[in-house]
Amino acid sequence: MYDGLSGWVLFFIFVLMKSTRKEEIVAVASGLFKEKGYSAVSMRDIAQAMNMKAASLYNHISGKQEILSTLIVRVAIEFTNAMETVMAEESSPINKIEKIIEFHIDITVTYAENIAALNNDWMHLEGTDLKRVVKMREDYEENFRSIIKQGINEGRLRPNHPEVILFSILSTLRTLYLWNEKRGKMDVNILKKDMVSVLLKGIV
Amino acid sequence: MYDGLSGWVLFFIFVLMKSTRKEEIVAVASGLFKEKGYSAVSMRDIAQAMNMKAASLYNHISGKQEILSTLIVRVAIEFTNAMETVMAEESSPINKIEKIIEFHIDITVTYAENIAALNNDWMHLEGTDLKRVVKMREDYEENFRSIIKQGINEGRLRPNHPEVILFSILSTLRTLYLWNEKRGKMDVNILKKDMVSVLLKGIV
DNA sequence: CGACAAAACTAACGATTGTTAGTTAAAACT
DNA sequence: AGTTTTAACTAACAATCGTTAGTTTTGTCG
Q: Which nucleotide is nearest to B58 (CA to C1')?
């Protein structure tokens, strides 16, 4: 019995180690991708940042494409799940939009590099991954659009063109990662309140 | 006299032709850069889109870098000039912000591909061009920031964190190029009014 | 028509790309 | 202790990169 348990523990450690090494590569690569873009970063660049040779990377990953795919699909799922949670709630459109703003900020704080790749390098995905991510993006936007339209129909949102509202908010949220660094000491909850205020009530 | 005039006319045609061919290359390249990014587009890609061989491009341009530089510096100057015009005006902060929104839309309509390069590929500029564009960007943001701060100090803008206001508006304006295609039949003036409304008065 | 220049071409360069094969040192398991 | 596995390495591959040199085609002027 002890032997059996030991086996499981070691198996988990094994999985964890292997997983950790791959995660290191993904993490290091994501930083480089954010700075220069996927195409401008070579496997040798990634290897150098990991203090190894390019060929050694292939002991842990199948190729450059897998790094990008891992990076992007991961955060795309994060957004999709968060949006589905909000959609399932029984609350007003305005309340839902507030929730969207808030989870965008939360996800940005922990997935800044992933978001950079999602925003700027999604077109370099291939095959199924590309289709999947594009589909998730379209569904996401369609959900957001439906919330806005409902808000307008209920008279709770000012009757501007839904597309203008959608992309005004979404553009701001999607590029939040760019100046999150400068956020510095600004507390996340204060940022949430400020952004909800600015995006919903405007600035005048 | 007729000969002299003829000479000038032909000179202009000559300049125009040479310039036009270079401009064609820059225009075609900008479209490719917008779709895949500077680093993912090869000189052979550009040549193919122009129905020529890569080597022939060098009869008109000095290299790939010049294309990027031409593209980015051109629109950066456009924004800088527009901002300086607004700064020189004697009008309220709110009025200035409206003007900024409007010229962003105007410039986006005619320089969509240039803006894509400015947003996504500025870091691939080299030497003087890189420094120059970064400087212009910093100055631009500083001007915008001062307008916002003044508006808050005068009590005309709600006292949110200036940085949040600045980047909320600027993110929307900078990524406008992404969905300008979808704008379709929407009139530019209607778009201006909608965006001013959404960005200044919010959506509730 | 002949002269000349503009703008295309072919061919090739050295460098870099992502990736594979085969090897070796260290670590882990039996 | 002996065996196997992990994860690094060196070396090299075919392909592609931006760019240059030299040549040929095209078109325009006198």
A: D19
- The distance of B140 to chain A (nearest Cα, Å) reads 16
In order along its 204 residues, chain B shows pLDDT tens digits of: 333 334 334 344 444 444 689 999 999 999 999 999 999 999 999 999 999 999 999 999 999 999 999 999 999 999 999 999 999 999 999 999 999 999 999 999 999 999 999 999 999 999 999 999 999 999 999 999 999 999 999 999 999 999 999 999 999 999 999 988 888 778 999 999 999 999 999 999
Domains of chain A plus CATH, in order, are 1-61 (1.10.10.60), 64-204 (1.10.357.10)
Nearest nt by C1' to B47 Cα: C8
| Alpha helices in B89-199, H assignment, sequence order | 93-121, 127-153, 162-174, 176-183, 188-196
Q: Which two tokens stand for residue A168?
A: 């005004």
A·B CB contacts under 8 A: 131
Chain A residues within an 8 Å CB radius of B201: 158, 202, 204
Nearest 5°: the CA angle A156, A159, A162 is 100
All residues of chain B having their beta carbon less than 8 Å from the beta carbon of residue A94 are 204
